[in-house]
Amino acid sequence: MRFLGYRRRNGKVGVRNIVAVIPCTACINELPRLIARGIPGSIPMGHNLSCSHLGSDLERSMQTLTNLALNPNVYGAVIVGMGCEQMSPEKIYEDVLKFEKPVELLILRDIGDWNELIEKGKKVAARMSEEASGLKREEAELGEITLGIKCGGSDTSSGVVSNPVAGVVADRIIQEGGTAIFTETPEILGAEHVLARRAVTKDVAERVFEAAKSTEKRVKEMGVDLRGSEPTPANIQGGLTTIEEKSLGAIIKAGNAPLQDVLDYGERPSGKGLYFMDGPARTAELLVGVAATGCQLMVFSMGGGLPSLLPMLPAAPARFPLMPVVKMSGNPDGYEKRKDILDIYVGSVVEAEETIEQAGERLLHEVLDVASGNKKTQFEHGAYEEIMLIQIDGPSL
Amino acid sequence: MKKAIVMDEKDNVATLLADADKGDVIQVKTGAKETEIKVQEKIQFGHKFALKEIKSGQDVVKYGEIIGRATKDIPNGHHVHIHNVESLRGRGDQA
Fold first, then answer.
1. Which tens digit of pLDDT belongs to each residue from A210-248?
2. Do B80 and A242 make contact, defined as CB atoms within 8 angstroms?
3. Cα(A308)–Cα(A154) distance, rounded to whole angstroms?
4. CATH classification of A18-134 is 3.40.50, yes or no?
5. DSSP code of A58?
6. For A302-318, what is each residue's pLDDT tens digit?
7. CATH number of the domain to which B73 belongs
8. B58 to chain A, minimum CA–CA distance in Å?
9. Which residue range forms the structural domain that includes residue B90?
10. Using the beta-carbon criterion (under 8 Å), do B15 and A304 form an inter-chain contact?
11. Is the full-model pTM beyond 0.90?
């Protein structure tokens, strides 16, 4: 199976053709907004990180911003620095450059004037946008896709219908030599032993247990019952009783392939196959981390209930544009109200009109249609106006 | 007939694929095997009921794995949810 994508100089294939304007500290989130305004395909990537964070939070943020610029959907990146931030704009620039990606660096300290920086930024972004629009889509193999998979607004239909359907697509992509990445460490609690059995080495199995253990330890340190946050009140309304039940249903979305490794938040995988990213379930942070791993697309398996009535992703920056998100639900309850905000409906499985495999095949075609640019997902309609949230573990100072 | 699905033959709960009223006889599917069971209270789509009596303190099993522990005796055909099942994970309240 094939799709049409933008082949980059480094061999990767993008399904979108974005100019990312990335600030190196939240102090100057306004600059990318002003630079990107009115330039086709350019996106301001404001975020939550400033000098108020320490150690591993800073390192993770640098890696995340670098890897977002390296996402195959990004044609080129404009890195905007202040010149006094803890993150190094020069290092981000150099790391992106190593991967033969068009990149420019603008630092307020060196330019010395706010308006002049905006003018220079607009010039380079406009040039990149023009270069990007001159590119033609070329044929690419299914195995060149790295797919992110997430479930959200889960109810019991997720584990029975939409997660198994997502799993079929993950398996197909991996069989063709591609990659699938899933995450949400809180949502492997109670299912980590099932996942660890599929690890390719003992060491990888150990990392699965370690990720779950460290998340559970932090929950316990809060001195409260996890229930109410995991599962959420909406999950509970939908019939999910415990985190164990939610987790056992959630891991089904990753299909049946052997687990190659556990990635850190926003880390790029070193090989192909199935990977688990140790990260939060909170959609806003999750999307950013998964896009940074290099996923060109994501499948979002949605339950029913209130979260599924939202036209955007729950708890997420509206229409995260770097990575198209295909929203699917398998809950026939109240479907009529939701059909305009879903990309694909697989409740037909509940109604016994279709098997999981047939629905999986349909989802795969939807993913390829979106990848080839024949279709925009629901979330791609409209402008990106919110900042990204990068995972932070330590204190905000 | 209204349907429910059992994810693994080791399970002691079934998930409803339709809203059920008290006294409804439900067709329960476990793989290729089909049985019938009467639900003893009103239970909504996607929620679970006991396939046989689950005693207080006993494991609740779905997907062939433990999803929690019964906090009360749950008779056959009754709703299984947060009012009679507790999670064993992330219990900072018991730490």
1. 999 999 999 899 998 888 888 999 899 999 999 999 999
2. no
3. 9
4. yes
5. H
6. 988 788 888 777 777 66
7. 2.30.130.110
8. 15
9. 3-94
10. no
11. yes
